[in-house]
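Q: What would this chain look like folded?
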Amino acid sequence: MNRSRLEPLGVPSSEYGFGSAAEPSVRGQPAGLDRWLKKQITERLGDSSPVRVALWDEKPDAQEGRVTVQFTDRRALLQLLANPELHFGDLYSAGRIHVHGDLLMLLGQAYAYAERHGKLPGWLERGRRLAPDLSESRRNIHHHYDIGNDFYRLWLDREALQYTCAYFADPDMTIEQAQQAKMHHVCRKLRLKPGEKVVEAGGGWGGFALFMAKHYGAHVRSFNISKEQIAYAREWAGRETLTGSVEFVEDDYRNAASTGAGAYDVFVSIGMLEHVGPGNYPALGKLIDSLLKPEGRGLIHSIGRDRAERLNPWIDKRIFPGAYPPTLREMMDIFEPNHLSVLDVENIRLHYAETLRAWLARYEENVDTVRSMFDETFVRAWRLYLAGSIMAFVRGKLQLFQVLFARSRVNAIPWTRADIYGEDAPGRSSFE
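A: My prediction, written as structure tokens:
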């Protein structure tokens, strides 16, 4: 396939030649300036830090429990100092920074350092649009999800192809079992019944829509703007003989009202809100209000934050352009203006860390195949993305919210959560 990922789709290019070779004049012996810059980094880290820094003429620290960041040229050193959040990812991906030792340890130390010393000034961060329009959304989704179905099949679960947080009702579950548990968990929260009509915003490869139809007897209309995912989902529905119960619509969720105003019992969105943008939340709430029947209800499952903050600029630039993880307060702009009442909120962020560990392990098992499909730069970029995401959830920089809601006037709601977490319900065990 050899599809280059060096030029992002719909994202401004970096200030330097990404992946370009360093000038010969700075590839010789490090100068006094280079040694001084290294000293500044080392002093900032402190003597107790397990992170070591090496220049291009030095050997990494091989001591157990240490991790060494090695620069290959002066320009890489200067770029990292200017804006580490933005430039580290490109420098690592292009091989201009090498990590000797545990990458997860390094990233964990980076988060710990940022917590102690704060982030870089805001003027160094790239701006973002808070309300992407249909064309922007299509470009952003294409950039991430249309890489190729074969790529995602290498490391996602093999039964439902779920690219969202799993639910480890039992810590010993496999990723396949945990994704099945997640889908049951959502359906139980929704009290999904046979014959009910469901509208899904952002259906991925179709696994959850087919699950709702197969296991709960629902009739599902799923909206998605990824051509690769829609094609896969439709083929899958045919193999499962569920085309009469599930319709996969290649269209933006914002156009759902034109095909079914007031027609649905349930609205569900798993892992799509991150792409909507807070500026579009009131409109999303209005759309949900128009789609649901008088007794309708819904659930939104989304990555989020405890406080409003931009996505990591490198992730925004290279991996997930236009994405924004909202706070619960920001999510209320969906519900409050549209008389939608929040019934339940659950935060399962540590389940996402475990999900990502399973994904990263399978990614590494198939890394040679990934390399043959793309190139080494792609391999390193996605390794960093998955590893960095693990640490973001472990350190609490990212959350995973499941928000259940219904119309404010609906009284047909359960008294307790017993049917979700009772003795017979998967999910009764705590995750540690």
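Residues 1-26, 120-129, 426-432 have pLDDT under 50 and may be disordered.
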